[in-house]
Task: structure prediction
Amino acid sequence: MLLGEDQITEDGEFVINIGPQHPSTHGVLHLKVWLDGETIKKVQPHLGYIHRSIEKMCESLSYRQFIFATSRMDYLSAHMNNTACALTVEKGLGIEATPRAKAIRILLSELTRLSSHQLWWGSIGLDLGAVTPFFHAFREREMINDILEETCGARLTQNFMVPGGVMTDLHPNFQKRTHEMLKNLKAKLHEYDDLLTGNVIFENRTKGVGVLSKEDAVSYGCTGPVARGSGVSCDVRKWFPYDGYEQLQFEEVLEEDGDCYARYMVRMREMKQSIHLIEQLIDNIPEGDFQTKTKNVLKLPKGEFYQRVETARGELGVYLVSDGASTPYRIHFRSPNFCNLSALNHMAKGGKIGDLVAIMATLDLVIPDVDR
Amino acid sequence: MDMNPNNFPGQIIPASSGSNILVTKLDDAINWARSNSIWPLVFGTSCCAIEMMSAASARYDWSRFGFEVARASPRQADLIIVAGTIVFKMAPVLKRLYDQMPDPKYVIAMGACTVSGGPFFYNTYSVVKGVDHVIPVDVYIPGCPPRPEALLHGMISLQEKLKTEKNFK
Amino acid sequence: MSQEELKTKITELLPSAIFEESSEFLQLILDAPDLLPLMTELRSDTQTDFDYLFNLTCVDWKDHMMMVYHLFSKTLKHTLVVKAKISDREQPEIESLSEIWKTAELQEREVFDLFGVNFLHHPDLRRLFMEEDWKGFPLRKDYTDENMIQL
Result:
C-alpha cells in the first residue's frame, strides 16, 4: 500500500506524503504524516532516496583515495569530514601532522563552519516564508567561497586533507583576504539579527515549538547544536580535543529551553565563536612543513581505530577496521544527521504541519549524510 | 517527345500555397518568447543543488536570462535541472515528475553523477549510471560540482537549441 | 572509573567476558545471548551509568559476524566498546536494545537492511535504505550483483 491506509487506527485520521521532491525538505526526504485534522499524530521518515553505497565503495579504495567520498556526504562541512578521515588514518599509522598543517586545518574548518551556518540561516528564512535572508546569506558566503577557492582549488567539495597534513600550502593572499572578509562580516552581522531574530512572526513560530528535553536528547543520541539547545554539553572540541584546539580560547554555547528558538540562538552565537577562533589563529600560523612525509602506499596494521570531530551539525565518527591490507576492511561513518533525525517523531507529535517545517529547519539536516 | 509528367526524371515537388514565409516568422517569434522565459523546477538531490542555489542568488543571478520564477510544482514548470545523483529508489519518482510536466519540456543533466554516474561509477550497487537511462536529456554539464558559470553556459546553450525548433509541420 | 576498575566490575557481572587491548578504548567480547542482561545492568548501575550509545554497527568476518557497540558515560566520563559475536551466519539473531537507548532503533534497522541481522523484540523492523523487495544484503562480503561494475 503506497500511502499506509491500512495502518490507520482511528476514525477521521488520514495519511499524507511530504516529499521526496519538496521545497523545504533540504534534500530528498520522504515523510509520511498521520494527521487528525491539522494535528500531527505520527511522523515516519522514509530514507534511501540518495543512498549511494559509500561504505561499500570505500572498501575497494586505498587509504589515500577514500577521503574524497566523505566530502560528498555532508557537503557543507566538507573540510571537517576530510579531517576526520585523515586523523583516523594518522592514528592507525601512529604519526602526527606538523604544527603548520594543524593550524591550516583549524582555519579551514572554522571558515567552513561559518559558511555552513550562514547557509542554514538563509534557508531557515526561506522555509518560514521570508525570502530576503537568503540573498544576504549568500552574499557573505560567496566571499568565503572565494578565499577557499584560491587556496584549495574548488568551491564546494575541496578534498584538501591528506594523512599527514594538507595537500599544499596556503596561498600568499590568504591572510589579507581573510582579514577583509572578517571586517566585512562583523559590520554586517547586525543585519542578521535585524532581519530575523527580533521579528514577532519568527518568534511566534519558533518559541515553544518542538521541545526536546535533556534526557531525550542523550537517549536519542543527538549531538551538535540540536543537543546544545537542550542544555547537553557535547562539543567534541572541548571533550576530546584534536589538532590543537586545546590551546585556543573559545566557549561552548549552551541554551536551556530546548525549543526551536534555543537551537536558532545556539547557531547564531556559534558563528561569533568561529569568528573569534579565526582571529586568534590568522596572524599566528606556525612556520614549517605543511605535510609529514609518508610512504606512497599506506598500509595500516591490524586493528580498529575510531576518531571523532565536530562538524557544523554534530559529532561525526569514523570507525575503521583494518586487516593489514592496503584497503580498509570495513568503514562505518557515525553520522550526526542520522541520529538527529531519529528525534523528529518525538518532537513533532501534537503540533501542526507549520510547526513540522519549523522543526526541520532548525534541525538543519543534510540528507546525503543520513543516507550515506 | 514524351510530355507525360509521370515520366520526367527526378522528383516532383508540389507547389505550396505560398505561406512558408509566414510560418518561419511565426516560428521565430514563438521560439524567442519561449527561450527567454523558461521556468525551472525546484529539484536538487545532493551537492550540485548548492551550486544551483548559488547560481540563483545575487552574484551569478540567473533571472537576468529569464529563469526568474522557480516553481515547486511540476505542472507549472518547463525545465527540470537534475542536480545530484539519482539512485534506483529515486528513479521512478523522477520519471513520474517528468511525466507530470506539460509539453514542451526540457531536461538539463547537471554534474558528473547525472552524466554517467560520476565518482560513484565503480563498486556501487545502487546508483543509476547516468540519468539518460531514465529520461531524455537535452544538455549535459560536466563538473563535480560545475561552477555556477558553467550552469549558466548550459542554460544559454539550451536557449540557443530552442531557437532552432520548428513548431508548425 | 579507570580501565582496571571497569574490568573488575564487568567480570563480576559476566564472568565469561574476554577483554582485548588492541585500541585506545577498553574492548569486551562476548557471545550474542549474553548481551541484553549485561547492557541493562550497565545502563542502570550508578557506578557505570552508560547513558550514551554513540555507535552501533556490524562487521562481517567471513565465518562469523561481530556487532559493535560504543558506549560513553556523560557523568563519569569513561568509554567502553562491547562486541557481541554471532556465530550463525545464515540466520543471525540478537536481542534489540531499543528499550534501553532510543537511538538504537534506527541504527538497528540500518544493520538489518545491509547485513540481514534479525533483532528480536524490535518495534518496527523493516528495510531502511533499499527498496522493500530488494534481494540480498549488500554490505556482506559475499554479495554479488549484476549492476555493480567492478574495478
Remarks:
- Chain B touches chain C at residues 88-89, 121-126, 129 (CB under 8 Å).
- The radius of gyration of chain B is 21 Å.
- The first strand of chain B starts at residue 40 and ends at 41.
- Strands of chain B lie at 40-41, 79-83, 106-110, 139-141.
